Predict the 3D structure of the following.
Amino acid sequence: MAGYKPVAIQAYPVLGEKITQDTLYWNNYKTPVQIKEFGAVSKVDFSLQPPYNYAVTASSRIHIYGRYSQEPIKTFSRFKDTAYCATFRQDGKLLVAGSEDGGIQLFDISGRAPLRQFEGHTKAVHTVDFTADKYHVVSGADDYTVKLWDIPNSKEILTFKEHSDYVRCGCASKLNPDLFVTGSYDHTVKMFDARTNQSVISVEHGQPVESVLLFPSGGLLVSAGGRYIKVWDMLKGGQLLVSLKNHHKTVTCLCLSSSGQRLLSGSLDRKVKVYSTSSYKVVHSFDYAASILSLALAHEDETIVVGMTNGILSVKHRKSEAKKDSLPRRRRPAYRTFIKGKNYMKQQDDILINRPSKKHLELYDRDLKNFRISKALDRVLEPSCAIKTPEITVSIIKELNRRGVLANALAGRDEKEISRVLNFLIRNLSQPRFAPVLINAAEIIIA
Amino acid sequence: MVEEESLRVVRCGGSELNFRRAVFSADSKYVFCVSGDFIKVYSTATEECVHILQGHRNLVTGIQLNPKNHLQLYSCSFDGMIKLWDYTDGILIKTFIVGCKLHALFTLDCAEDSVFVTINKEKPDVFQLVSVKLPKSSSQEVEAKELSFVLDYINQSPKCIAFGNEGEYVAAVRDFYLSVYFFKKKTTSRFTLSSSRNKKHAKNNFTCVACHPKEDCIATGHRDGKIRLWRNFDDEKKYTYTCLHWHHDLVMDLAFSVTGSSLLSGGRESVLVEWREAAEKNKEFLPRLGATIEHISVSPAGDLFCTSHSDNKMIIIHRNLEASAVIQGLVKDRNIFTGLMIDPRTKALVLNGKPGHLQFYSLQSDKQLYNLDIIQQEYISDYGLIQIELTKAAFGCYGNWLATVEQRQEKETELELQMKLWTYNKKTQGFVLNTKVNMPHEDHITALCFCNAEKSENPTLVTTSKDGHFKVWILTDDSDIYKKAVGWTCDFVGSYHKYQATNCCFSEDGSLLAVSFEEIVTIWDSETWELKCTFCQRAGKIRHLCFGRLTCSKYLLGATENGILCCWNLLSCALEWSAKLNVRVMEPDPNSENIAAISQSSMGSDLFVFRPSEPRPLYIQKNISREEVQWGVFVPRDVPESFTSEAYQWLNRSQFYFLTKSQSLLTFSMQSPEEKLTPTSKQLLAEETLPTTPFYFILGKHRQQQQDDKLNEALENELVQLPLTENIPAISELLHTPAHVLPSASFLCSMFVNSLLLSKETKSAEEIPDDVSMEEEKESVDSDEENNFTEEVQDTNNTDLGKDIIHQLSKSEEKELRKFRKVDYSWITAP
């Protein structure tokens, strides 16, 4: 026979943003720490090695911050002019940065003076990166050239002169030491192969390209320029996969979450948007105080660092989950008590009798099941329920009314109890969704 | 096919199962219950109806096992006859004609050749218990006129009479007193409850009585929920009684267990209470039985109980208070708000069932398929409570969607309204709630309909309401990257001069929507929701509205409350014709252009079948029912009939069912009722229910061998002529009918196997009569242990009659096939 049917709790649509697992995830950060830099923060880069320090490029300085430090733990300030694009090597030991005067400097993290200096660009170098084999550096400059440098003897190996405008962004493949991608203001993104001396794929973005990003697999390329973010399938020879236009102003920076499931983009419209990399739908967005120039995520998305045009560096740390577990947990019965008798195999002449599985009922449902109507009403009038989830209280009152026992449940209450009922009524009577039920209850109390 | 006689209105299934107490067979394998003019024999293990005993010409009012022979059953009926049946074979043995209306039947072990019946002699409300002497005679029909009076002025219901302690006394209750008649002393004692003299709060009327099987103890149930146990009642002064009180409403029935150690009681709470050792504190409950317990019966073996419920249901309950089987008929004790619908998938009839449920009722097997819980709330059975009512329901998109509307109105201003949309889940083979809309309208919803056009890509639902609006609901994609989901949202709200919207209907192709606003019919384009045109006849509010179909799709029909039936032409936007007809029910046939209208007059209800293209009806049947017909529906036939007569051609594709105000489900038929029954599956079941004892194994093997021998013998003699499968109509039907319109596989299976049997048409005409009876006899005893013996007898008979060898063959063949039938088919029906 059918069991007891629990009271249907009327669910009301929640206004505002829909709560999804993404909003929960991306809202689970502490309030941001603001650090003032000397100029616009053009680049933030995390070291891939513990302790996951990050390098911040602003004006003519490069600051290295520890994970929770508010003060820089190290500063490189040997630049005559603005520094650009300070980038860690994969092992986190070396740092390379370009500068306004066309020079590229390579630093040891522990040292202060540059290890190497690569001279060759005639104009500002806005992008530098290490190749996958760690021994080469790729750079792009405003003199329209892309150069490949050898670290050990600080020599220029190759020069590509295929771009027809400033080269402002670039990125080396993480898998293939010979492949790298650069984006330029001539609206193209080119993929170069160091083995062929020329670009192998060129795609037309349509706007001056501000940022490029290669997926860890190297199969997908993301380019940002103008208001557009475009995703290209490199394995299909640079076919456009999807074009996103979710920002109001130029998109300046791109970043992948650590799982690779989400793509983040920062823009001059002061927003960071999070996309799903499977559906390319915006799943979340953050607001910042100023236009965003740079964006980086720490290992395991522990920290989001955003650099802005007004020189503010905003650092958000993830809320630690260990806190919830800090309460001393009650000792629970051992595992064997739960499985006791459950793993008994049925013998041939045994008759198996299944115990019907018990359905979990809320406490008020248990009371209603046993016709303890006053108790059920008391339970849902407790402040923890009545304030937090008034819809449950209202649903129970409605159910009691349906059963025709609301007057009985409200009867025989002393002053304290009746005031609790009245308080609830006063608080919620004005809400149109509860009004029909509560007016009825109020009438019964008055009568 | 039989030659076409006149069309008759026949009752089709759905008769009450809860009219009287059910009776168990001595071995608890079968349970009997009265059901209209029939007695139904159900298997307690499989819940399947094994036999239908028919022969009475009026309502059967009582059944009892023959105390002398436990394989026989007595029954009595309003037609004044007592019949004796052999229930294992379903054969009528004897008929005793008493001559007056019999209201109840009782048998006693000690009363050798007489039974007790309740009759009413003079006044309509005065009933008497009399004993009827059943004369011993060999003839089939015997007159039994020897009545001897036992008790006068008793209650009509058999619940109010009980025989106690091996027939020493009989106890009867009525109003406020209990009377006990002692057979030996031939005296009557009468006991009155003291408080009953105070008429003001006289709520302790007696409702039922039961006697302890071993001791001198009588249990009586009362209207205030108390149960009283009477002892020492042989002395009118010293009698005592104790009181048991748990029920808060009247006690509907009482029954002692076979040993008398426990007492069962039930009532409106739908809880079966077992009182152990007649003590107040020793009680066990079986709650949530679904509906009011009307009757309780106990099997003579003591291992099973059976409760009959007000929702036309019997529950077989194990001794340890565990429900083991449910026999559910058509639920009929409630108002039908939803009307009759046909589930496009199962072809089941769908209507209001248990409170808050939709029932799916199979017309073919007269059985409820399942209940869909729509309201999903605990049902509280208190009298006078305003319940949530399921008021509207509609199927859409080939049964993929179901829309339901429920409402509860406590006061004039407080209306709770909820619309639910259910989607069919292929995995679970059932409906799953998809969207719940609170207060879809501000006032009562008057109609809802789906757009069932074939080409429509997006499911569309229209609801009309008394608040003057109609709303169009469409299915929208509600999925995001986390999950796929669809939901219904309101797409359009339309109104017309603040008139109440009363009806809506989509045209067959889904391009037009007709909505009636009181007297005015508006036509809307379903693409743009633009008002296209209006029709107004000033002939009263529109009660029914429907589009013509197929070749008549350019017509729109409307029936008004003032008794005018109008037909508009949608191409010319003008009235095509109108007729004066007070239409109560108007139903279009989904398979043809025909429309059936049932009109109501003072004489009764008349049926008119017509096409919208011409105002002349195709067929008229006057006076199909005395009562008002409330709902009607066309049910597409699985296999089209081929009536050649023009008047009956409208029944070729579909069958018409209708429901009257007293909730009898009726249909039209030309066949005699015997032909409609398919007893094939039933015998099969009887065989299957036999337990496989070691004895059976030995004997079974022996039999099998015998059969094999016979078969081999036959094979040597002549080649078996297997019928060509192409020539068998059942198989060709099976193969040529589209799969989705076929009945369930379990239903087809027996038909299919039967069709493989060699037909007996080869028999010569004069052999047929006694042969058939032999055949029957043989089939019924086939599984009995004495089978070998009868078989031999039969064989000799056969040779005597000079049967040719082919017939012999078919017999063994039959047996062979029956063996196949014994193979478990459950995998076919398994969900």
About this structure: Chain A has two domains: 21-317, 363-446. Residues 46 and 54 of chain A are 4 Å apart (CA to CA). The two ends of chain A are 40 Å apart (CA to CA). The first strand of chain A starts at residue 33 and ends at 36.
